Amino acid sequence: MERKIQVLVVDDEVDFKQLLTFWLESKGYSAITASNGQDALKLMEKTTPDIVLLDIRMPVMDGIETLKRIRKTNKDLPVILISAYINDPKAKDVLSYGISGIFYKGKNFEEVLPLLESALRTHKRLK
């Protein structure tokens, strides 16, 4: 049996996180979740996902700080940022940390699929 690609979804909005997780699993991915950057980093001490979908704005530890910390230990892990704001000024702060794209919450989930597949092909040579 082929191993499913594991996606870590990090977002503080419970409904959005549940919908995205359900959608990812319907597309054949395995999804694990965290509600903030601190929880995501703890989770990543136990398992390394194939790709991370990371909300920029969260309590406790935001996506910018989380991405910086991920990059200290893993420079190659593909990360796609999630933002509710098309022109989020915080998104500009992370371009130097090597992201694979930005997905906007108002968009259809189908639009995240090409980002996922492209990032996985480029970074992980998967799929």
β-strand amount: 15-25%
| Oligomer status | single chain
Structurally, the number of domains stands at: 1
How many runs of DSSP E, i.e. beta strands?
5
Q: Which structural class best describes the helix and strand composition? A: alpha/beta
CATH superfamily: Response regulator
Spatial sequence of strands, sheet with the most strands: 2-1-3-4-5
Shape: globular
Biggest sheet character:
5 strands, parallel
Mean pLDDT: 86
Order of helices and strands: EHEHEHEHEH
CATH architecture field: 3-Layer(aba) Sandwich
What do these coordinates show?
31% of the residues are buried. The chain has 5 helices and 5 strands; from the N terminus they run E-H-E-H-E-H-E-H-E-H. Strands 2-1-3-4-5 form a 5-stranded parallel beta sheet, sandwiched between helices. The protein starts with 5 loop residues before the first strand and ends with a helix.
Q: In short, what is this structure?
A:
This protein has five helices and five strands. With 127 residues, the protein is α/β, with parallel strands linked by helices.
Name the features:
Rossmann fold; five-stranded parallel β-sheet
Tell me the layout of helices and strands.
Elements: E1 6-10, H1 14-26, E2 30-34, H2 37-46, E3 51-55, H3 63-73, E4 79-83, H4 89-92, E5 101-104, H5 112-124
Parallel strand pairs: 1-2, 1-3, 3-4, 4-5
